[in-house]
Write a structure and sequence with these properties.
Number of helices: 16
CATH architecture of the domain at 240-319: Alpha Horseshoe
Shape: elongated
Largest sheet: none
Structural class: mainly alpha
Order of helices and strands: HHHHHHHHHHHHHHHH
Oligomer: single chain
CATH topology of the domain at 240-319: Serine Threonine Protein Phosphatase 5, Tetratricopeptide repeat
Strand content: under 5%
CATH class of the domain at 240-319: Mainly Alpha
Length: 319
C-alpha cells in the first residue's frame, strides 16, 4: 500500500515488530548523552562499579517455565493475527501480559492488532506501555507515530518520528513520515527537507518523491514538482497517480499536450479514474478539440464525477 499525502495515511510494518530492532544503535550524540546521564544518575562524578568477572544470568525453573509460556502465547498470537483473527490474537497477547506485565513485545503486538482492528486509541496505549518498558523500542515509536497520525494528532506523531531519527539518523521512513506530518501541518518547506533526506537515504523511495512533488507544487515550484514526479515514475512506472498528478502540473503550466499524454498513461493504467477523464477533457478543450473534450466530460459524469457536468452544460449541449 503506497503512502501518499492525498488524504490517506499510513500502512504498518511487520507484525512481529522486527523491522526496527529494539537494539538499534544510537547515533545521535544528544540521545547518547541522555542515556549516559540516566545510567550514571546524572552525576558525572559517580563511576560504575567494576567487578572482576562477568555476571551470568541464572533463571530459576519457574522463571524458565514462565518465559517459555509467554513466548508460546506470543507466537500463537502472531499466527492468529497473520491469519486475520485479530480478536483471538489480542486475547493471546493479553494472556501473555497477564503472566508477565513487563513483556514489551506482547504490548507492542497487542497494540498492532488493535490498530488493525480499528482501535487506534487502544493501540496507542499499548505502544506507549511498550515504550515505557523499553525506551529504545524503535518499532513501537514508529507504529505509535502512525497511530497518532490516524487520529490527526500530527504534532504527537512528529515527536515519535523525531525520537526515531534520534535513535537512527539513517531511517528513511522516519524522515518520510515526519515529512507527511509537516505537510498536513502546512509546514511545507520543512516537509520538503524531510522528503529530500528520505530520498537521499533511499534513492528508490518513489512515494517520497511523489509527496515532495505535491509539496513543491503547493509552494509554486512547478518545475521542481515535475522533476520529482518524473523520478517517482522512473522508480515505479505503473502507478497511475504519478502520471495523473504530473499531468495536472503540466496543465497548470499550460502544457496541454504534455498533460494529455500523462492523462492517457494514467487512464491506461487505471481506466476508472473519473477525475482524470474530466482533467483530460479540460486539456482537450484548451487544445480546441471540443469533440474529445465533450467525450471525456461525458465519461467523467457517467462515472460519478459531477463537477464535469457544468462543462458539459456550457459547451456540449446541442442548442
Amino acid at each position: 500500500m503506497k503512502n501518499k499525502i492525498y488524504l490517506l495515511l499510513f500502512c504498518f510494518t511487520f507484525f512481529v515488530g522486527l523491522a526496527k530492532s529494539q537494539n538499534d544503535t544510537v547515533t545521535d550524540s544528544a540521545t547518547e548523552q541522555i542515556i549516559a546521564d540516566t545510567l550514571s544518575g546524572k552525576d558525572a562524578s559517580v563511576k560504575p562499579m567494576q567487578t572482576d568477572s562477568f555476571e551470568e544470568v541464572v533463571l530459576t525453573k519457574e522463571q524458565l517455565k514462565l518465559l517459555k509460556k509467554t513466548e508460546k502465547l506470543l507466537q500463537k498470537g502472531i499466527a492468529k493475527g497473520k491469519s486475520g483473527d485479530l480478536n483471538a490474537a489480542i486475547e493471546l497477547f493479553t494472556e501473555a501480559i497477564r503472566l508477565d506485565s513487563t513483556y514489551a513485545q506482547a504490548y507492542f503486538n497487542r497494540g498492532f492488532a488493535k490498530n488493525l482492528n480499528f482501535n487506534t486509541k487502544g493501540a496507542i496505549v499499548d505502544f506507549t506501555r511498550a515504550i515505557e518498558i523499553d525506551p529504545m523500542y524503535a518499532n513501537a515509536y514508529f507504529n505509535r507515530g502512525l497511530a497518532y497520525s490516524d487520529e490527526n494528532d500530527n504534532r504527537a506523531a512528529m515527536r515519535d518520528f523525531d525520537t526515531l531519527i534520534a535513535i537512527d539518523s539513517t531511517d528513511a521512513e522516519a524522515y518520510y513520515y515526519r515529512g507527511v506530518c509537516k505537510y498536513f501541518l502546512v509546514e511545507l518547506q520543512p516537509a520538503i527537507a524531510d522528503f529530500d533526506t528520505a530520498t537521499m537515504l533511499n534513492p528508490y523511495y518513489a512515494e517520497a518523491y511523489y509527496n515532495k512533488a505535491i509539496a513543491k507544487s503547493r509552494i509554486g515550484d512547478k518545475e521542481g514538482a515535475i522533476a520529482d514526479y518524473t523520478e517517482a515514475i522512473k522508480i515505479n512506472p505503473h502507478d497511475a497517480d504519478f502520471y495523473n498528478n504530473r499531468g495536472n502540473v503540466k496543465y497548470v503550466m499550460k502544457d496541454y499536450k504534455g498533460a494529455i499524454g500523462d492523462y492517457n498513461r494514467a487512464l491506461y493504467l487505471d481506466p476508472y479514474m473519473a477525475r482524470t477523464y474530466s482533467n483530460r477533457g479540460n486539456a482537450h478543450f484548451f487544445m480546441r478539440n471540443k469533440f474529445d473534450a465533450c467525450s471525456d466530460w461525458t465519461k467523467a459524469v457517467e462515472m460519478g464525477f459531477e463537477y464535469a457536468q457544468e462543462a458539459l452544460d456550457l459547451y456540449c449541449k446541442v442548442k
